[in-house]
Specification:
203 residues; rod-shaped
């Protein structure tokens, strides 16, 4: 009986020891799993934070583009469009004969010239106060400004000749002076717009 009792006690202790070891092993597995999930959670949070930060920087760059490069690109487009409207209205003023038509074309050419002048001044001011404008931006704008300094007075001279009824002289001036200068202005504004669009892609 003593041997049986001792054997039973030994078996019981062995079972308790094995149970304790299994419990410890299970705890270790759970701990490992918890640590693994904790690491994954930290990694997810870190990636999310970096993504939000990167997105914020992208938004800032985009807003900067809209307020700077994009805004001036729009101004260059306005100059280009208004200059073409001015040229068309000046040509029409030479061609039309009815008083109402002449008044309408004169109003159109006057308005278009004012828009060119206004957009040019706004663009110059934007470049002067901008922190994102490059030397290339300023050089391309200078070309636009230089061409318009020559072209604007020529366009107004043609309008004056047409208003005074000197159509032949107006036509001669359009062919000799207006067309080349208009082409030069379209080229200058086109170069600026192309460069601004390149900056937009790079941004």
């Amino acid at each position: 009986p003593g041997r049986l009792t001792g054997g039973r006690l030994g078996t019981k202790r062995q079972r308790e020891s094995e149970s304790a070891m299994n419990l410890l092993s299970n705890l270790r597995v759970k701990t490992k799993l918890m640590l693994a999930f904790a690491v994954m959670a930290i990694a997810v949070v870190a990636v999310s934070a970096l993504s939000v930060r990167s997105l914020g920087k992208s938004d800032d760059r985009f807003e900067s583009y809209l307020d700077g490069v994009g805004k001036r690109e729009h101004m260059a487009t306005e100059i280009r469009t208004a200059a073409m409207r001015r040229a068309i209205a000046a040509r029409n003023l030479v061609l039309v004969t009815a008083a109402t038509d002449r008044e309408r074309e004169l109003a159109d050419v006057t308005k278009a010239h004012e828009e060119v002048t206004k957009s040019l001044a706004a663009m110059k001011q934007s470049l002067a106060t901008s922190t994102d404008a490059s030397d290339t931006d300023r050089a391309l704008f200078t070309k636009i400004e230089d061409v318009e300094k020559s072209y604007g007075p020529v366009a107004l001279d043609i309008v004056k000749l047409a208003v005074d009824g000197k159509n032949d002289q107006a036509i001669a001036k359009m062919v000799a002076d207006c067309r080349p200068l208009l082409g030069a202005l379209l080229q200058a504004t086109g170069d600026y717009i192309a460069d601004a669009q390149k900056d937009g892609v790079d941004a």
